[in-house]
Amino acid sequence: ALQALCNYVKISTIIESIEKLFVALADSASEIRQRLIFIKEEKEKNWPYIVFSLCRFLADVCQQPDMAAKIGHCWPYLHQLLSETNYYLTSLLEEDQTVSKKPLFPHPYQLSLHNLGRLAACAGKDQEAKLAWNTSLEACLASFPTIRVMALLPASYLWQKKWLSAEKFKDISELLTFLAKSDCPLDKKHFAPLVELNGDTAKALDLVRHDNKRFFPFDFR
Asked: pLDDT for 205-215, tens place per residue?
């Protein structure tokens, strides 16, 4: 019961952050306004995926000159959302998985945090971006194969920024080796361009970074 209450408090705090963000961006472009209105109305039904949708959407548009300034203006709200999501994922990572004997299931929080890292980088907040991507990476690596492979997303951004540690670089190398194994349950044809690099982790990360839509289409990034 105590754990359930703690989870509710964390969830409520994240929703509160979204509502503040809604207010901050209320006078922004009509497309963003429509997306935020949808989130505000639907949050109780499927809120984790709606949070992800918001983060992904804003991260995709933040490179546009007219959007970058608006997103930078509301960074305090995004920062709160990043902090709460990071705290939630870190709490999951700290739980003893040996009790349930099941891999971590962080979805879609790990993608929300990855995209919040993109937003932090867009706003020039390097430390927050690094924190978000590293936690997202760890959460992915601790999960099932279908989520584990998503570690390539935050890893590719960390690699581009020269922030990927040697330890995490090794983890990604092992992940790429796993993709090449005959018993890997993932679609080998889909990830063939990475496997065909024959263990060149640096080139694989560069390829993912510059063509992440190819490897992670739809709502998988």
From this structure: 999 999 888 89
